[in-house]
Amino acid sequence: MSLPNLFASRISGMKASEIRELLKLLDQPDIISFAGGIPDPALFPVDAFQAAMAKALGGGNHALSLQYSASEGYLPLRQWIVGEMAKLGVPCEAGNILITSGSQQALDYLGKLFLSPGDTALVGWPTYLGALGAFNAYEPRYDRLQPGGNRSVQDYAAAAAPGRVKFAYLSVDFANPTGVTLSQTEREQVLDLAEGLDCAVIEDAAYQSLRYDGASIPPILALEVARKGDINACRTIYCGSFSKTLSPGLRIGWVCAAKSVVNQMVLLKQAGDLHTATLNQMAIAEVANGDFDEHLEKLRGLYRSRRDRMLAALETHMPAGVEWTKPEGGMFVWVTLPKGMDGAKLLEQALKTEKVAFVPGGAFFADGSGANTLRLNFSSPSQQAIDEGIARLGRVLTAALVP
Ligand code: PMP
């Protein structure tokens, strides 16, 4: 008997990434790792969560917090999100919001909602690895989304035949993995393309609140609402998350979109996990209604200083020919090495000789290209670790570049 022979065809697209397996070995204390992508636990508002959990469980509230609840999500939390979306230029109602178990679940459900095998998803080259992981289960083809590029709507449509383009997925602010932010013009261009192709736009706003400098740019959904005057006429589906601001472990994210999309996703949610953990939603709502802005300021202050430290260290230690992005927020800097260099091989070298780690960039490309790229995380390591780790990385790259 071989049960794997019985697995559905969709499973063949779901592979453990070799890099992730390798990165699991990084727990040794003397390794400096820029490979993570997680918030600094020192910034979790633990006191506020303790009080919020106590409130949600006390005074008879357990009858609500420990009980099954609505698939759409906890209403006070959805209402708080309505207020936040309004600040971003997206007037909407609670009926436009679905609470998900992290924004990752939203990506899975959106793959399930839109993709039949052979349909095309437009994604960046590179893009968020977890989005590819979520979509792969629905057996799509991928094409490269290049906002402002010179490909026509007809060209994108022809490349998708005999299937069709169902959506363009993109991370708009300080993207994972590149740290790059889409300009307002590029956001408008994505909308124009989606109009031309008559496809959806999945706007991944996981890092939206983590801006350290520069002026904020309206979400694609806000630009579309400005065009159409009504969120229920919009093709953009906005995915938000509390993971980068409050806690990834509580697994709370949301979708803000036209009711026609939200209502269908509610059915997927009912079939998938009934609803997001009630207690966690109540705790997040309580903490979000507290000193959230003050908390965000603290978070931004610390991450900004780490970002600055990393950019300064790169300037000091990188050999000629190496380039990197200068993100206005988020958690990542993206490094491009001279052509022909291989990030995966360099990682082996870096671990062995200098005990420094990063994520080789190739895994973020749907077409398997991008071997000469790396992703560096600056939200987890301390400033001292950043200085020392980038110096080590500089030595590894200098040694690899000198013949
Ligand atoms: N989108 C992006 C771009 C991310 O980087 C992440 C987390 N790494 C997610 C979505 C998923 O986050 P969560 O499910 O914790 O909300």
Automatic annotation (TrEMBL):
One of its GO terms (biological process) is alpha-amino acid metabolic process. It comes from Thalassovita litoralis. GO terms for molecular function: pyridoxal phosphate binding; transaminase activity. Its cofactor is pyridoxal 5'-phosphate. Residues 88-393 form the Aminotransferase class I/classII large domain. Keywords: Aminotransferase, Pyridoxal phosphate, Transferase. This is Aminotransferase class I/classII large domain-containing protein. It holds the Pfam family Aminotran_1_2. It comes from the Bacteria.
